Amino acid sequence: MIKEWYIQLLILILVWLILTLLKKKFFRKQLKNFKRLDVMSLFLVVAIHFLSQDVMGLSIIPFLICGLSAYGLIMTILYALMEGQILYKKFLIKFWRVADILFLGTYCVLLIFKIVSFFN
C-alpha cells in the first residue's frame, strides 16, 4: 500500500501540513530555526527507495549515500585547506541542506518519471 506513488505523495503532504501546523500553533518561539524539510528528508528517503524500485527496478539510495559521502569528504578537505579548521556546526548545516535539496530533487524527478509512465 505504501509502495503506491500517490499514497506516498499524500503521506508527504500530510506530514508537511502537520509539521506546519505544529510549528505555527504550538512551537512558534521555541523552534525559530526549525525547517520542515529537515524532518521531511527522512520520509523522502523512504519514498525515494520505493519509488526508485518501482520506476527503475532498483533502489538508488546506495548511490545517493555514496554521493553524499563523497561530497562530505570533499567539503571536509576544502574546509581544512581553506580555513585551517573544520567548523562542525557550519559543516553539518551546509551538508544537511545539500542532502535536503538532493533528496527533494531526486524525489521530484522520480515522481515525474512515474507519472509520465503511469499515463503512457
UniProtKB/TrEMBL annotation:
<dbReference type="Pfam" id="PF11877">
    <property type="entry name" value="DUF3397"/>
</dbReference>
<keyword id="KW-0812">Transmembrane</keyword>
<feature type="transmembrane region" description="Helical">
    <location>
        <begin position="58"/>
        <end position="81"/>
    </location>
</feature>
<feature type="transmembrane region" description="Helical">
    <location>
        <begin position="101"/>
        <end position="119"/>
    </location>
</feature>
<feature type="transmembrane region" description="Helical">
    <location>
        <begin position="6"/>
        <end position="22"/>
    </location>
</feature>
<feature type="transmembrane region" description="Helical">
    <location>
        <begin position="34"/>
        <end position="52"/>
    </location>
</feature>
<keyword id="KW-1133">Transmembrane helix</keyword>
<keyword id="KW-0472">Membrane</keyword>
<dbReference type="InterPro" id="IPR024515">
    <property type="entry name" value="DUF3397"/>
</dbReference>
<protein>
    <recommendedName>
        <fullName>DUF3397 domain-containing protein</fullName>
    </recommendedName>
</protein>
